[in-house]
Amino acid sequence: MATYFDVHPDNPQRRSISSVVAGVRSGALIAYPTDSCYALGCQLGSRDGIARIRAIRNLDDRHHFTLVCESFAQLGQFVRLDNDVFRAIKAATPGSYTFILPATKEVPRQLLHPKKKTVGVRIPDHAVTQALLAELGEPLLSSTLLLPDEDEPLTQGWEIKERLDHQVDAVIDSGDCGTEPTTVIDFSDGEATIVRRGAGDTSRFE
């Protein structure tokens, strides 16, 4: 059964955050809130975590996993970007955007798009997510909590706990954080291509 954490959305309790992060470091798969919707997350190099996310969401090997980063400095360790792309992404973060970029060698091979060798990265504007990332000290490997054959992500912590009780190890409930996933911008060729219109305003990339 998943451990349930009721965490304040603006002032997350340090003890709860520390408990969740200790679990992540031990291989736990968590469901946690972001500034767009709930996500599944695990430690960066967790093969078991990746397999469990793929199973829950019924994903194929072309799915872009996302590295959820605390800061721009952390993001820069895992992707390559030129000056123009740097400025465009810097201006939009933190926020409800996922950027697809060429990965550096710091990214585990199993996370890369098999042909493009790209990965998704983002810096969320959510106090609970930021607290988790600060405590963890590295990105969370993540994927939107959108179940197969459903049109919208799950939005309530209690419902996630009820439906995924035996598939995840912990659920962080910080209230409703919306149903709209991130806007996805592909910068892998140096130019902005809008892959998915979501919670982030696309006008700055058009």
TrEMBL record:
SUPFAM superfamilies listed in its UniProt record: YrdC/RibB
The YrdC-like domain, residue ranges: 14-200
Superkingdom, taxonomy of origin: Bacteria
InterPro entries recorded: DHBP_synth_RibB-like_a/b_dom (IPR017945), Sua5-like_dom (IPR006070), SUA5_domain (IPR052532)
One GO MF term: double-stranded RNA binding
Name this protein carries in UniProt: Threonylcarbamoyl-AMP synthase
